[in-house]
Design brief:
It is a single chain. The protein has 13 helices and no strands. It has about 300 residues and is an all-alpha fold. The chain has 2 domains: about 180 residues, MetI-like fold (Orthogonal Bundle); about 40 residues, no CATH class. It is flat and about 75 Å long.
């Protein structure tokens, strides 16, 4: 018995050490940097000038930060609502498999030509192989819906919408998996009984389907919000926050402040704003799970 307890204790120590070393330490170190004046000369030292909340105040006073914070909020709201609605509308098996097999790079290639190798683009037609037009423009122009290529990523008015579409496509299989799992758990007898009682499609959805998938929708809302607040790779690969910060978000702004402006203290402070938002949503999600476990 003691040997078994020692084995399980050792087994639990592995993820604990992992979380403390690769998650806990970076968060604490970033929080310390956010209240210090940090430059390239003393980046590797812990003893640096203490500036309190000056980095936070400098970040908030910057008009770019306020614009980027608004961009982040819009990006999160559009992504969450779009994934919840698309996952609910496209959960059927045929659409599920079609979307699940489309990797995230497809969303990038539709907007940014030349991002992927020619061997992948070749089957899509000559108009999207090595030409300057992307798949989206090629299809729209072939259907004569547009007369000239649309600057999806260089027009500030539509660049964020293009990124939202790419990110929604990237996350759609996840939302469909959760919603499909919730829908398959609803007994068919409930729908048959409701139909016999004269309930229409709207009534069946409102009183049977929606209550059954509410936990899945809450999970999608919380997890997708956390993912959208942490998004970096898609935006960095497509626009790098441009044009004129129209698609910039907090994680990318933190990177730019730290590794382009070399203002590590302000970059850490911006990163902490994103961390507080993610941490708040995570706490709300854990609280929801606890309430579901009790009920």
């Amino acid at each position: 018995m003691q040997r078994r307890n020692l084995f399980f204790t050792t087994l639990l120590l592995v993820p604990t050490v992992y979380l403390l070393s690769l998650v806990g330490f970076p968060v604490v170190y970033n929080a310390v940097m956010s209240v210090q004046e940090v430059n390239l000369g003393d980046l590797s030292h812990f003893a640096r000038p203490f500036v309190g909340l000056a980095n936070y105040g400098e970040a908030i006073a910057d008009p770019t930060f306020r614009k980027v914070a608004l961009n982040t909020g819009v990006f999160v709201v559009v992504t969450v609502t779009s994934l919840a609605r698309s996952g609910l509308a496209c959960w059927r098996r045929c659409v599920f498999h079609a979307v699940s097999l489309a990797p995230a790079i497809c969303a990038v290639c539709c907007w940014r030509p030349g991002f992927c190798q020619a061997w992948w683009l070749a089957p899509c037609g000559s108009g999207c192989s090595l030409r300057k037009y992307g798949v989206f423009n090629y299809v729209l122009m072939s259907l004569h819906l547009i007369g000239s290529p649309v600057n999806w990523l260089s027009d500030p008015a539509i660049a964020m919408s293009a990124l939202n579409i790419a990110h929604v496509w990237y996350g759609m299989p996840f939302s469909m998996i959760l919603i499909a799992a919730a829908l398959t758990g609803i007994p068919d007898e409930h729908y048959e009984a409701a139909s016999l009682d004269g309930a229409g499609p709207i009534a069946r959805f409102r009183y049977i389907t929606l209550p059954a998938i509410t936990p899945a929708l809450i999970a999608i809302g919380c997890l997708v919000t956390i993912s959208a607040l942490r998004v970096f790779d898609v935006i960095f690969a497509l626009t790098q926050g441009g044009p004129v910060d129209a698609t910039n978000v907090l994680p990318l702004l933190s990177y730019q402040a730290s590794f382009q402006d070399f203002d590590f203290g302000r970059g850490a402070a911006i990163g902490m704003f994103a961390f507080f938002a993610v941490f708040g949503v995570a706490l709300a999600y854990v609280g929801t799970l606890r309430r579901e476990a009790v009920t």
